[in-house]
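ligand=IPE
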Amino acid sequence: MMLIKLGGSVITDKSQYRTFNKDQVSRLCREIAESGKGTIVVHGAGSFGHVVAKKYALQHGLIDFSQIPAIAQVQYDVRELSSMVVRELITNGIPAVSVPPGSCFVMEDGKLIVNDSEAIRALAHIGVMPVLFGDVVMDRKKGFGICSGDQIMEILADIFKPDRIVFVSDIDGLYTADPKTDPDAELIPEVTPDIMKDISSGSTVDDVTGGVRGKMESMLRMCDEGRDCVLVNGTVPGRLLSLLKGEDVPCTVARM
Ligand code: IPE
């Protein structure tokens, strides 16, 4: 089984509030369906989450009550986004249902707590893909916080023990610097905890959950003896499908 995260940078335009990349999502869902592999999809929030979350500093938890309407707005926006992703999965023959983390889980000082995964496991067991996503989640210490799709990936990796974990982004993989601003940036084909120490942490978009570096760190946490995690570019047609079929494609593999 595969666990795939469709990053907010591929499913939305991260610089424009609430811009859904419908054609790209549709194509990626088709590639997932065509691979014929059992899959669970998680997705990011992109501009349906980060823009308002950043404006109201939701990642820091409750600071003042002007943030409260923003909690409702972000939860509303990411649920709409998730419905659109699920619609593309269903259209491509994958029965899927959106499971909003903010409605079923809590956090403890930023860490997601999943005491009861029965519904998610039952859905998967019967052949319906549970689709979870980055969301505002209530927090026992901070009032509320932002739970990223990457945190969800870690939880689902524990529950489902996938053979392969794939992060679909809008870049070919991890670079030595930001490839969008630095022409000397080089793709790093393989990342280990040691290599990670030397990499710059720049992020050019409105991201409240840590950018590429945070992603790599969580990818490294998800690796184990028999399982690596891959970061691949989903904006190039066919690349995800090639990767899922086991072909060689440009990407970054995280390994212990
Ligand atoms: C962010 O989730 C959640 C919110 C801002 C509500 P992610 O961190 O997984 O989203 P992307 O993939 O970076 O857009």
